[in-house]
Write a structure and sequence with these properties.
Elements lengths: L9 H10 L3 H5 L3 H18 L2 H9 L9 H45 L32 H12 L6
Length: about 160
């Protein structure tokens, strides 16, 4: 079975980050990083931006860009970070998919020769992410994991024939 990895679009992460600080990171499922950028934006705005400029901006009045520059700089840095993180995440996913195919082939060979443990699944055959061996399903994509192992063990118990 061919694995599919979730590729994120860096331009979409950057666009979402430009709309609201932290949204690009939420799209990338980087929860703590999104909260960190959001908290940084508020802290920098509170400490470095004049409250009158914030009130004028909220009222829709024209504001000197230099008076809100710290907020714009943090927002811009968040956009760049979301783009870079998305690119890095895609590169890691591609490298993992390439090595994961080799690893799954090796583990299949170990199970067939008796060196591996029968019925254990290290990663989900559907999404390729690591799974908890105590669960019967992938907690990432909810694909059922034990169907192949149970079918294989059921055939072995019935003398190699299925009923």
């Amino acid at each position: 079975m061919e694995r599919t990895t979730s590729q994120k679009r860096p331009w979409l992460a950057a666009l979402l980050g430009a709309l609201a600080t932290g949204f690009g990171h939420l799209y990338l499922r980087r929860w703590r990083r999104a909260v960190g950028w959001f908290a940084t934006l508020f802290a920098v705005t509170y400490v470095l931006v004049d409250p009158a400029a914030i009130e004028a901006l909220a009222a829709g009045d024209p504001v000197d860009p230099l008076s809100v520059a710290p907020t714009l700089i943090v927002g811009g840095a968040s956009v760049v970070d979301a783009y870079v993180v998305a690119r890095a995440q895609n590169a890691i996913a591609q490298a993992t998919a390439a090595t994961g195919e080799t690893r799954s082939t090796d583990s299949r060979a170990e199970t067939e020769t008796g060196n591996g443990v029968e019925g254990t699944v290290d990663s989900c055959p559907n999404c390729g992410k690591d799974v908890d061996p105590e669960l019967d399903f992938c907690h990432w994509c909810t694909a059922e994991l034990s169907a192949g192992a149970e079918a294989g063990s059921g055939a072995a118990e019935n003398g190699g024939s299925e009923r």
